Amino acid sequence: MRVVTILDVAREAGVSITTVSRVLNHPDEVDPNTAERVQGVIRRLNYVRNANASNLKQRHTGFAAVILRGRRNLFLTDLAEHIVSLGRGTRLQFLLEFIDERADEFLAARSLYLERKLSGIIFLGSNLLGREQELKRLDLPCVFATVDASGLNLNQVGSVSVDNYRAGWEAAEALYQLGHRRIAMLGYFGGEADATGRRLYGVRDCLLSHGLPFDEDLFVDCSFTLQRGWEAANVLIDRRKPFSAVIAMSDTVAMGAMKALHDRGIRVPEDVSVVGFDGVEQGRFCTPSLATMCQPAQEIARITLELLGEMRAGKPGRHVLLSGLWQPGGSVRAIATET
Amino acid sequence: MRVVTILDVAREAGVSITTVSRVLNHPDEVDPNTAERVQGVIRRLNYVRNANASNLKQRHTGFAAVILRGRRNLFLTDLAEHIVSLGRGTRLQFLLEFIDERADEFLAARSLYLERKLSGIIFLGSNLLGREQELKRLDLPCVFATVDASGLNLNQVGSVSVDNYRAGWEAAEALYQLGHRRIAMLGYFGGEADATGRRLYGVRDCLLSHGLPFDEDLFVDCSFTLQRGWEAANVLIDRRKPFSAVIAMSDTVAMGAMKALHDRGIRVPEDVSVVGFDGVEQGRFCTPSLATMCQPAQEIARITLELLGEMRAGKPGRHVLLSGLWQPGGSVRAIATET
DNA sequence: CTGAAAGCGCTTACAG
DNA sequence: CTGAAAGCGCTTACAG
C-alpha cells in the first residue's frame, strides 16, 4: 500500500510542505484560498498524517492511558467508551487498560508510563486512600474520573465526580420520604477517599440525621459484580434482620441483589424496595426497572478530557463536582411508615 | 525532566549510536563485552527508547487495533476486554476503537493504520459482505473475531467464530423440540457473510426442515441494543400474529424484548419463550434467567491472539470454527405442540 | 564487530 | 502569507 505523505500533498497542491503542515496545525496562519485548495488535495488523496513523525517533532507520544479498575463494572466500561470515543477527535490516542477491581492501579500506571512515555493518565474507579506518594512519583497529568481527588492538592492531578456523599444522602432521603426506616446497604466501605465509601457515609449520615442508628447487620460488604451483588443479598437475607429497602452502591450490585431477592421469593418492590447507583442503561430494562442515582457519564467523560487538556497545557489541575440525578423506577415504592 | 536519548547512552558508553541501536535490536551482532557495557549505561541512565522515533523508521510498531463495532454490545465489550487483558503479556499493545454499529469499520481501520502504522487489526463484530477489496488494500494481518472469514481466502486474514449457522439451527431445534411452531426472530439479516445473518439462516433452515414456512411477519429487523430489542418486540406484538417463542440474535436484544413483553402484559415463559445468543453474564441475572446459545468468549480471545501472532510471523491466516454451547434458562418452557 | 551517513515524515523558527 | 532548512530520535544499508 503506497502511503501518501505530506510531500505528495504539497506537490499536488503546488505549495511547500510547510504550508501543508500549517493548514493542518495552524489554519488561521494560511491564506484562506490556499488552505482550501490544500484541504481539497488532502481529501482527494486520502492523506492521513503520520502520528509517529508528528509526535517525534512535538516531543510527546500522543498517548494517554485509561486505567479501568473493575472489569465487570458496567458504568466504568461505559465511561471508558465515552472517553475513547470523544478522544478520537483530538490528537490523543487512548490506551485502555483493564485491571482487577482490587489490583494496584498505580503500579499499572507506572509501568505503562515507562513503557509508553504517556502524556497523561486517566483513572477510572480508583481508590486514593494513602496513595499520595505513588501519585507524586508519577509526575505527569492525571485525571481521576468518578473520584474526588481535591484532598490531595497536587498540581498534576485533576478530578471529576459526582458529589458522592451528597448523592448517597439524597438516595437515602428519597427512601426515607417514602416511609422506609430499615434500609440495608450493599457496597464497599473504601473510606473517605473512595467514591463508594463516600456514598455509604452519605447514606449513613442521612439515616443518623433522622435518628436512625447505623445497623451493622444491615450492611454487607461486596465488590461490584452481578455475582457479588447476588451473594451479598443472600448473606443479607440469611441474617434474618427485617429490612424494607436496599441501597446498593452500584447498579450492577443492585441488579444482582434483585435477582437474589427474586430467587428467595421476596418481591420487588412489594416486599422490598431496591435502589442502585450509576444509571446504566441495563437498569432501565430490568423488571422492575431500577430506581437509581445517576452519574452523568457523558459529562464526566467530556470534563475528564477537558481537565487533561488543561494540565497538558501547563495549567494546574481542577476538581469538578457534579450533582447526581435521581432516576425513579419501578423497584421502589412508598410504604406505611415503619415504627 | 531531561529526556535521555540514544546519543546520551552512546557518549556515556564511548560507542556510536549505531552500536547502541544494535544492542537494542540485534544484540547478537555486537561484541558481547561492548553489549554488556552499553546495557549497563542504559540501565544506569534509565534510558527508554523513544517509540515514535523508532516506529517512524521501523516496519512494525507493536500496536494492534481492536475495532469494536457496536458500542452497546455487551458480548463484544466483554470480548474486547479479554483480548486487551490477554495481550498484556505479549509485546503487542492494543488500541481499542469503538465505532458505531453500522459505521464502516474498514474506513476506521485504514485511517488508524495510516496514523499509527499498526502491525495488525482485530475486528470485532464486523460484516464482511462485499468488502474484499477494502480488506485487500489494508495489507496487514487482520483477524475477525466472531465472524467466519474463510470465504475470502486472503493470506493476511484469519478468523475465529462459532459456527453461527449451526448454532442458529440448534437454538431453533431446541425450541422445536419443546413444542414451539410459531417462532419469531429479532435480528439483523446481514447476509451470508455476517455472523448474525448466518444465525438467522440457520434458524430459518431448521424451521423449513420441519416443514414450517418462514413467515416474514414474525421477523423484525433490529440492531443490537436494549432499546432496539425493546422496540422490535413492540413492533412484533403490534403485528398481532400469534407466536409462542422469540429467538433474538443477541442477548442484548433478547433482554430488551423480555422487557417489552413484560410491559405489554405478556408473561415469559408462560405466554412466550425467549432465547438469546451470546451468553453474557447479565442474561443469567435476568428474571427469568435467559436461555441462550453461548459463544465462548475466553477461547475466542485466546485464539484471536494466536492467529494474529501466526500471521505476524509470516504464516497464512487460519479460520477456526467453534461450537456454540446451549445454556438453558427460565425464559423457555415446553408447550403442548401447536398445530 | 563498528561507525558515518542517509533518511523515516513531520513541525517550526527564521527569513523573505 | 509563504518557503528553505534544520532537526526531532531512531534504524539500517553500506563501507571499513
Describe this structure in words.
The structure is a homodimer of 339-residue chains. The first copy, chain A, is α/β, with parallel strands linked by helices and 339 residues long. The first copy, chain A, has 13 helices and 12 strands. In chain A, the strands form 2 sheets. Chain A has a 6-stranded parallel sheet, sandwiched between helices. The mean pLDDT of chain A is 89. The first copy, chain A, binds a DNA duplex (16 and 16 nucleotides) through residues 3, 5-7, 15-19, 21-22, 24-25, 29-31, 34, 49-50, 52-59.
End-to-end distance of chain A: 76 Å
**What is the CATH homologous superfamily assignment of the largest domain in chain A?**
Response regulator
Strand tally of chain A is 12
Number of domains of chain A: 3
- Level-1 CATH class name of the largest domain in chain A: Alpha Beta
Radius of gyration of chain A: 25 Å
Strand order of the largest sheet of chain A: 2-1-3-4-5-11
Low-confidence stretches of chain A: none
The gross shape of chain A turns out to be elongated
Mean pLDDT score of chain A: 89
Structural class of chain A: alpha/beta
Second rung of CATH, namely the architecture of the largest domain in chain A: 3-Layer(aba) Sandwich
Task: Kindly report the CATH topology of the largest domain in chain A.
Answer: Rossmann fold
Largest sheet data of chain A: 6 strands, parallel
